[in-house]
Design goal:
Structural class of chain A: alpha/beta
CATH topology of the largest domain in chain A: D-Maltodextrin-Binding Protein, domain 2
Shape of chain B: globular
Largest sheet of chain A: 8 strands, mixed
Oligomer: heterodimer
Radius of gyration of chain A: 24 Å
Structural class of chain B: mainly alpha
CATH class of the largest domain in chain A: Alpha Beta
Helix content of chain A: 40-55%
CATH architecture of one domain in chain B: Orthogonal Bundle
Order of helices and strands of chain B: HHHHHHHHHHHHHH
CATH superfamily of the largest domain in chain A: Periplasmic binding protein-like II
Number of strands of chain A: 10
Radius of gyration of chain B: 23 Å
CATH architecture of the largest domain in chain A: 3-Layer(aba) Sandwich
Order of helices and strands of chain A: HEHHEHEHHEEEHHEHHHEHEEHHHHHHH
Largest interface: A-B, 44 and 31 residues
CATH topology of one domain in chain B: MetI-like fold
Distance between the termini of chain A: 84 Å
Number of helices of chain A: 19
Strand content of chain B: under 5%
Number of helices of chain B: 14
Strand content of chain A: 5-15%
CATH class of one domain in chain B: Mainly Alpha
Number of domains of chain A: 2
Helix content of chain B: over 70%
Shape of chain A: globular
Chain lengths: 436, 276
């Protein structure tokens, strides 16, 4: 009896020890958006297939998340096993050696299926450092009924001049209908992102090849004046405090004729539960000025593993699951094709079922027309379309965004805003050692 | 004539007080109402006040997504714990400063207060590194420790102000009767300063409950309090106002209810000695 007890005790100890050895919990930092929340609900599919791995989610607002994960990775705090980061962080962090390369994901992952533009934005020197969970560009969303009423037809690839004319024709200020709604709220991810992407199509750029700021050039002057004049003619009142959500609310309640913003907004404005105009929305590529570049951006929320993580293999298993073709099929089977995370895989856009989603093709075309490695008409020393992938950009672009926002609010002129932008950028770049 | 003016003055003062009170309370009321709206109604323009179909779907969504009670318990432990710990340190410190002041007491008090003027982000990285090296990241103990230190200057200052109102002769009488120091502080000083200590306690629980910078930056899963809970419902892309309002209502309700029940003690403590 004593012997049997000993055997049982030994077995219990061994099983506990082995259980402890295999049970791993992954802490995943993520943003609060519909696709990420949906993934959290579907993780039982992953944990059933990987019984030794538990998942802890830390969901935070985008800016809080950025501050939180940046602090943790820069100090090697080790609080997260997987981080949700954007195309801005990936090249900077990968060059710092802060991220684990994802080149050795299994063949079934089919890395070549990732959309080239998105993959390029998440790679450094040919190595992938973050797996895209969803990708987005920007495009024109417009009210088909108002366009028809104005006697105009939206081309698939409009010019800025057409947008301005159409905005004027659609505006009916007495009835609180404004031809165009654009971001005006100051911030590097708000108005600075939009106007930077817009400036690319006007032939402007942030820096020349020697990192000299270019706000004193004619292309920037033309960009900012066009933006301000169009918003003066056809924009909503108080536009200098409008960001994505404010414009979304205006568009959904029927107060915008056109809205140029993230492709992800397409699913919101066509959602019958939230949008009063869900059945009257059309899509077009972001406008151009005939110079070979469109005013659209490229962004991807992606999953990355911090270097020094003790759970790299388990983390790779999760990333493989969350960004795989099978995950897209899982979402489609549970919630329909319209809710599949867009903009990451070529095979999704070849799927005839997904092709029926009204904004699918325009999203793909928008993403494909974006080139983060060659964003401007003239050559630039940086990567990024609506941002410049250098650590200093967040601070500089927020300050520049404040100048543009002040100009939109009528507090300063376009010339003063550009002069201030030039001065503050030059100062920051000198301080950072890019220029002397 | 002078007598007739008084009711008008009273009415004006009362109306003004109500207006100020309503202005302060309005955002809380609006948050509460928005929590029961759909996302579409939450952004409706012109805004809808009461005439909407009330729904609990936001509360459902919040409960489905997050373990509210875990966040709530962390908030309770961290805010009450750090305040009690702070009081244990601050009562003797304030006693010494109020009744046995030295040449540098005023300077020390000012120096303590000056630490509150430093932007917290300025010391984020050093504190994060210390927490990492001592294994205190994402622990309740770590947050108790840091919140105690952060609120200590305010606790000491408040107690110092209350203690100064107590006649030193009473303490001297106790000493002459042979009361040792501990008895003097515990049995004589503390009961006399109880309204002040109570209001300090309540105010610091509220401050610790609402502290967002450190509680978000030093936690991930295990020690995350309600501030992290709220931060998870905001989003720059997508409508979230109704769900965020529901989450905010749930986060502020406990402290609001506590404040409501303890308002007499709070007011008594805050006006302690003010009319002397």
């Amino acid at each position: 009896m004593k012997r049997i007890t000993q055997i049982f005790c030994a077995a219990a100890v061994v099983s506990l020890a082995s259980g402890a050895a295999f049970a791993q919990s992954l802490t995943i930092a993520t943003v609060n958006n519909g696709d990420m929340i949906r993934m959290q609900k579907l993780t039982s599919d992953f944990t059933e297939k990987n019984p030794g791995i538990e998942l802890n989610w830390v969901t935070l607002e985008e800016n809080v998340l950025r501050q939180r994960v940046t602090t943790d990775i820069a100090t090697k705090g080790g609080q997260y096993d997987i981080m949700t980061i954007g195309t801005y962080e990936v090249p900077i962090w990968a060059r710092e050696g802060w991220l684990v390369s994802l080149d050795d994901l299994p063949a079934s992952y089919d890395i070549d299926d990732l959309l080239p533009a998105i993959r390029g934005g998440l790679s450094v020197d040919g190595s992938l450092y973050a797996a895209p969970f969803y990708g987005e560009s920007s495009m024109v969303m417009y009210r088909t009924d108002l366009m028809e009423k104005a006697g105009l037809t939206m081309p698939d690839a409009p010019t800025w001049d057409f947008i301005r004319e159409a905005a004027k024709a659609m505006t009916d200020k007495d009835n609180e209908v404004y031809g165009v709604c654009l971001r005006g709220k100051a911030g590097w991810g708000e108005n600075a992102a939009f106007i930077t992407a817009m400036s690319n199509s006007f032939g402007a750029r942030w820096f020349d090849l020697d990192w000299n700021p270019q706000f004193d050039g004619n292309a920037w002057k033309e960009t900012l004046n066009f933006y301000l004049e169009m918003m003066e003619e056809s924009g909503p009142p108080g536009a200098s405090s409008n960001g994505f959500n404010e414009n979304l609310a205006l568009f959904q309640t029927g107060k915008c004729g056109m809205w140029i913003d993230a492709t992800v907004a397409a699913s919101f404005v066509t959602n019958p539960n939230d949008s009063q105009v869900h059945d009257r929305v059309g899509f077009a590529l972001a406008p151009d000025k005939g110079l070979g570049k469109r005013g659209n951006w490229l962004w991807a929320w992606s999953l990355a593993i911090p270097a020094g993580s003790q759970k790299v293999e388990a983390a790779k298993k999760f990333i493989n699951w969350a960004t795989s073709k099978d995950y897209l099929a899982l979402v489609a089977s549970k919630e329909g094709w319209a809710n599949v995370p867009p903009g990451t895989r070529t095979s999704l856009y070849e799927n005839p079922e997904y092709a029926k989603v009204p904004f699918a093709q325009m999203t793909l075309d928008s993403i494909n027309s974006a080139d983060p490695t060659n964003p401007a008409v003239d050559p630039v020393p940086y990567v990024g379309i609506q941002f410049v992938a250098i650590p200093e950009f967040q601070g500089i672009a927020t300050a520049v965004g404040q100048q543009f926002s002040a100009a939109l609010a009528g507090q300063i002129s376009a010339d003063v805003a550009l002069k201030n932008a030039q001065d503050l950028t030059e100062r920051a770049m000198k301080k950072a050692g890019y220029i002397k | 004539m002078a007598q007739k003016k008084i009711p008008y003055q009273k009415i004006a003062v009362t109306a003004f007080a109500w207006a100020v009170g309503m202005a302060i309370f309005f955002p809380i009321l609006w948050t509460f109402l928005t929590g029961f709206k759909t996302e579409a109604v939450a952004i409706a323009s012109p805004p809808v006040f009461f005439n909407f179909e009330w729904t609990l779907e936001n509360y459902d969504a919040v409960f489905e997504r997050a373990d509210y009670f875990r966040f709530f318990m962390n908030s309770v432990i961290i805010s009450v714990g750090s305040t009690v710990l702070g009081l244990l340190i601050a009562i003797p410190a304030a006693w010494a400063m109020a009744f046995v002041p030295g040449k540098q007491t005023k300077n020390i008090l000012m120096w303590m207060l000056s630490t509150k003027m430093l932007p917290p982000v300025g010391v984020l990285v050093p504190i994060y590194l210390l927490f990492r090296d001592f294994g205190m990241l994402d622990t309740r103990f770590g947050l108790l420790f840091v919140l105690t230190l952060i609120n200590l200057p305010i606790i000491v200052w408040m107690l110092y102000t209350y203690f100064r109102e107590i006649p030193v002769e009473i303490l001297e009488a106790a000493r002459m009767d042979g009361a040792p120091l501990l008895n003097e502080v515990v049995h004589i000083l503390t009961p006399m300063a109880l309204p002040g200590i109570a209001s300090t306690l309540l105010l610091n629980i509220i401050l610790a409950w609402n502290e967002a910078f450190w509680t978000i930056n030093l936690t991930t899963v295990d020690a995350a309090p309600l501030t992290a809970f709220i931060a998870s419902f905001s989003s720059p892309e997508g409508l979230f106002y109704a769900k965020l309002s529901a989450a905010s209502t749930m986060a502020i309700a406990p402290i609001l209810i506590m404040g409501w029940f303890c308002q007499k003690q709070l007011v008594r403590g805050l006006t302690f000695g003010a009319v002397k």
